[in-house]
Write a structure and sequence with these properties.
It is a single chain. Among the domains are: 147-214, no CATH class; 256-305, Laminin, CATH 2.10.25.10; 306-373, no CATH class. Helix content is 6%, strand content 26%. The longest helix is centred in the C-terminal third of the chain and has 11 residues, at 363-373. By secondary structure, it is mostly beta strands. The strands form 12 sheets. Strands 1-2 form a two-stranded antiparallel sheet. It is rod-shaped. It contains 3 helices and 24 strands. 27% of the residues are buried. It has helices at residues 187-190, 194-200, 363-373, and strands spanning 16-17, 23-24, 43-47, 55-59, 63-64, 70-71, 106-110, 118-122, 147-151, 163-167, 172-178, 205-214, 227-231, 239-243, 247-248, 254-255, 271-275, 288-292, 296-297, 303-304, 318-321, 326-329, 351-354, 359-362.
Length: 386
């Protein structure tokens, strides 16, 4: 049995114990056999040295609270102190803040404890490598095959995350502007930038191009349905029209006058020509009709009607075919007022009768008329006297 103590007794200060108050009371084990800061596995217990009492918890990253049991959000709290970050909030911004771990350009996600830190899902155009702090260079890979590339670092008109190509030629498209229905329109060629496309109509959608789409010079149809359109391949621009018959001009907009061709011989040699341009005409475009003069026939009025075919002079004279009339010739006969040429046996010497105007001509006058008017004779010489 131990000997009773004698001599002195120590009244220990708070935080100490032992016969001589030489033992610092361990606040981490004073109330429990387990580490009070390790309940959730998130920290270490630190004894408060005497004369202090109790303990404090040093939390591992990602944990906070008196006993390191709170997983704090490092998107809104300091990862070392657990204190709330002083953020600049903006309800109009995409993520509610203009700063923070993702610099206002990405969605922040806390890494659950015992992990630490956060992750950023950056908006298009912002670099993941530095927590969405850098505007990514969309032109780095030289996307504009036939032109110069610009992105938001070059122009404030170009939104972050997109680019715009300035094509080397107007024959290439810098992008495609589509309507709400998804159909491409003529705006494709008229609106060369995203801001112009969206600004023109709020429902439009801009798809950046890379100067590889050939502008279709035949859309919409510049030949007005009157010809076949052939697009000029990029880098060239424009089109050519192969006009249908009856149409002229670079866009086949002019109804050709078939009665007055620019080259060649006009139609209807001995007649009046009518085409679709004639007043009140029902003639189809690309064609014409001829109204022949007396004495001519055929589609082109180039066939002389043979006035002697029916032998109008009979046995009383020689028939000469004058355009547009025929004439009976025989000496000693005068004009028959009844209309039957050269049928009268009574006559005046050295005269012939011209049927058209019942005029009596001398032989010299008659022969001269035949020569001047281009008469067709049957080869019989007209006698020069009785």
């Amino acid at each position: 049995m131990p000997a009773p103590r004698s001599g002195y007794n120590c009244d220990c200060q708070t935080g100490f114990e032992g016969d001589d108050c030489e033992i610092d009371i361990d606040g981490c084990t004073q109330y429990s056999d387990s580490d009070p800061c390790n309940t959730e596995g998130g920290g270490r217990c630190v004894d408060v040295p005497g004369p202090g009492i109790g303990y404090s918890c040093e939390c591992d990253g990602g944990w906070s609270g008196e006993h390191c049991t709170v997983d704090f959000n490092e998107c809104t709290h300091d990862g070392r102190t657990g204190k709330l970050l002083d953020l600049s909030y903006d309800p109009t911004s995409a993520f509610g803040v203009v700063d923070g771990p993702c610099n206002g350009h990405g969605a922040c996600s806390d890494v659950p404890a015992p992990g630490t830190g956060w992750e950023c899902d950056c908006q298009s155009g912002w670099s993941q490598a530095d927590n969405c702090a850098t505007d990514f260079d969309e032109c780095e890979d030289e996307p504009c095959v036939n032109g110069e590339c610009l992105d938001s670092t070059d122009s404030s008109d170009i939104p972050v995350g997109s680019f715009h190509c300035i094509c080397d030629s107007a024959g290439w498209l810098a992008g495609v502007c589509t309507t709400e229905s998804g159909e491409e329109t003529t705006l494709t060629r008229l609106l060369a930038s995203e801001s112009a496309c969206i600004g023109h109509t709020s429902t439009n959608v801009w798809t950046p191009g890379t100067c590889t789409i050939d502008v279709d010079g035949c859309d919409p149809d510049p030949c007005r349905g009157h010809g076949a359109c052939v697009d000029t391949p990029a880098p060239g621009t424009g089109f050519e029209c192969d006009c249908h018959d009856g149409w002229l001009g670079s866009t086949c907009a002019t109804d050709a006058n078939e009665c007055s061709p620019s080259t060649g011989t006009p139609p209807c040699a001995h007649g009046t020509c009518s085409d679709s341009t004639s007043p009140g005409s029902s003639v189809a475009v690309g064609s014409y009709e001829c109204d022949c003069d007396d004495g001519f026939e055929g589609a082109e009025c180039d066939v002389d009607v043979d006035g002697c075919a029916n032998d109008p002079c009979g046995s009383f004279g020689i028939c000469a075919d004058f355009a547009p009339q025929n004439t009976c010739a025989r000496p000693f006969q005068a004009c028959n007022t009844s209309g039957d040429c050269c049928a009268d046996a009574q006559g005046v010497s050295d005269r012939v009768c011209r049927q058209g105007d019942k005029r009596c001509l001398t032989l010299d006058e008659f022969n001269a008329a035949m020569e001047n008017d281009g008469a067709v004779r049957d080869g019989t010489e007209i006698p020069g006297g009785p």
